[in-house]
Specification:
Layout (H helix, E strand, L loop, with lengths): L25 E3 L27 H10 L4 E7 L12 E6 L16 H11 L4 H21 L10
Antiparallel strand pairs: 1-3, 2-3
């Protein structure tokens, strides 16, 4: 069963925060797992394991289905060139450790393990599989339209 999403405002940093406090959770931006980005633009995992233009909602859904405790923030990655665009917004915070500092889930000991899991799982989502089939049919329709003659007077 998926854990509930935590909606808590971020507080100013305090060295007394424990690993259970939201400010100590790891951050994942969609740019970290975007195959269209370079390392200079913010990609953090190998390109073969990345996804084309992931959304924060997809990352959130995958993390929740894995049983991780997740928080969503309305933030934009600092290296994002189109930071005003809504599709680039969203930062996911994931709780990696318990309050005593022990690892919460042995499947995800590091932030890299979470990003690799998310990169492998997003292509399996129903929303991603449906999009691939519809884009193929659109390209076939466009190819058929190219062979038709234009109507009207010649030269105008």
């Amino acid at each position: 069963m998926a854990q509930p999403q935590v909606n808590q405002q971020a507080r100013p940093w305090d060295p007394k925060f424990t690993h259970a406090d939201r400010e100590r959770w790891v951050c994942i931006y969609p740019a970290y797992i975007n195959s269209k980005k370079t390392v200079k633009e913010g990609r953090r995992i190998p390109k073969e394991k990345c996804v084309d233009n992931p959304l924060y909602t997809e990352i959130r859904d995958v993390c929740l289905s894995a049983g991780l405790i997740v928080g969503v923030e309305n933030k934009t990655y600092c290296r994002e060139l189109e930071h005003k665009d809504v599709k680039y917004r969203g930062r996911i915070r994931v709780q990696l450790k318990n309050e005593d500092g022990s690892i919460k889930d042995p499947k995800f000991p590091t932030r890299d393990s979470i990003m690799l899991y998310v990169g492998e799982t997003i292509p399996k989502l129903k929303t991603r599989q449906g999009a691939g089939a519809s884009s193929q049919s659109n390209t076939q329709q466009q190819q058929g339209a190219k062979g038709q003659k234009k109507k009207g007077r010649k030269g105008k």
